[in-house]
Specification:
By secondary structure, the protein is of the alpha/beta class. Helix content is about 40%, strand content about 20%. The protein has one domain: Rossmann fold (3-Layer(aba) Sandwich), CATH 3.40.50. Helix 1 packs parallel to helix 2, helix 1 runs antiparallel to helix 5 and helix 2 packs antiparallel against helix 5. The protein is globular and about 50 Å long. Bound molecules: zinc ion. The site of zinc ion has 5 residues, from loops.
Length: about 240
């Protein structure tokens, strides 16, 4: 069945991703579109991005600092209201009690109508890529934190009053069932991705072209020029 083109704009949204550039690539258009329509968008970046370099002697503290500044610049491009950084080392994320406790606290603080995160069930993409461990772990940790944990007062009882998230959008899914039209904000998505200069090297232009191609592909599913595709889960409906 063709994915449904959805125009719903949540009042508050919480996007939770592993690395500093993940959200911009995965759902930057949707976040920008929602923000432009009055949604209060929060972004959680779980890992520091401290391994985002292929240089053996890289200055890691400088890299972490640069990547935090890149996130702030990209968030400004997209209209993100607030960025929350958890500061875990790349590759060291675990879907454990500590991470779920932090995510539950954030969900209960922000009280989002919609949560956006990676689809942890998407592992193999074609013949040349499988999904990063950190992406898979964050995806499962977010799902476990949204429901049942954040919604039940008996989980993490000292982390704020229970909050029920209405809908979860899973990006980079192999089972997308909705698309969001990002035609009006495609340039802002591109600008946000280009903020991550430490990750681009010579590939900035190539990345912009690849991003537009992928957005065009998703757009064809919904009959629009550019889109982002998600697996949408409407909880409790
Ligand atoms: Zn990543």
């Amino acid at each position: 069945m063709a994915p449904e083109l959805v125009a719903d704009v949540p009042g508050r949204a919480l996007a939770i991703y592993a690395h500093p550039d993940d959200a911009d690539v995965s759902c930057g258009g949707t976040l920008a579109r929602w923000a432009a329509s009055g949604c209060e968008v929060h972004l959680v970046v779980c890992a520091k991005g401290d391994k985002g370099s292929s240089e053996p002697g890289a200055d890691v503290p400088a890299l972490v600092e640069a990547r935090a500044a890149e996130v702030a610049a990209a968030a400004l491009e997209l209209g993100v209201a607030r960025v929350h950084r958890l500061g875990v080392d790349d590759g060291e994320l675990e879907n454990d009690h500590k991470l779920r406790c932090e995510l539950v606290r954030l969900i209960r603080d922000v009280r989002p109508d919609a949560v956006v995160c990676p689809d942890p069930t998407a592992v193999f993409f074609g013949e040349h890529y499988y999904n990063h461990r950190d992406h898979r772990i964050v995806g499962w940790a977010v799902l476990d934190s949204v429901s049942p944990a954040a919604a039940s007062p008996l989980y993490f009882p000292t982390s704020g009053p229970a909050w029920t998230v209405g809908v979860v959008y899973l990006s980079a899914s192999l089972d997308a069932n909705v698309v969001v039209d990002i035609t009006s904000v495609i340039d802002r998505k591109a600008a946000a991705i280009l903020c991550h200069r430490s990750q681009l090297g010579e590939s900035g232009e190539w990345l912009g072209v690849a991003m537009r191609e992928r957005a065009e592909q998703a757009g064809r599913l919904g009959g629009v020029s550019f889109a982002e595709a998600f697996r949408r889960v409407r909880l409790g409906q």
